[in-house]
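Re: beginner question about structure tokens

> Can someone show what the tokenized structure looks like for a real chain? I only ever see the sequence side.

Sure, here's an example I had lying around. Input first:
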Amino acid sequence: MPTHTIAVLVENEFGVLARVAGLFSSRGFNIESLTVNADPLDPSVSRIVLVTSGDEQVLEQINKQLNKLISVIKVTDFKDVDTVDREMVVVRVAVDERTRVELDSIVQAFRGHVIDIGPRSVAVEITGDAEKVLAFINLVKPLGIKEVVRSGKVAMARSVQLRDSNHKAKRDNAEEK
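And the corresponding structure tokens:
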């Protein structure tokens, strides 16, 4: 089943995340990834980026239901939008004298950062798209993963696309006049 990324701009108020999550659970929709943060430019607003799965009918229903919530300002479905997206993962990998050098070369290849070193494990931070994160996890799995913490996807539309869309909309409006 295809996954969909949706950004929801909401009023930054008590219970809004619970209402969004409740909407999904009450209708049997699954949230595969969820990130929330207050907008640093306007603390009265928060951005929720969520990843869900379903066919076109499910996606349409989700968008309609989100738009009905009082605290929702704007819903952006990234279905037909070229996006920039990132995820962060922290992986604690078991190491010994033999595998420490191997892990270090993998971390360098993925442009990761060692963030904690212990006698028998190393914690590594990797940032990138979901494919990069999964590739790193799969590559270090044979070394012995002790723990994995993933942030969930953050996403926004690419700038060039936004300019093209705005330019096209202005051109279309001018042609109508």
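Each token stands for a local structural state, so reading them left to right follows the chain. Residues 165-177 have pLDDT under 50 and may be disordered.
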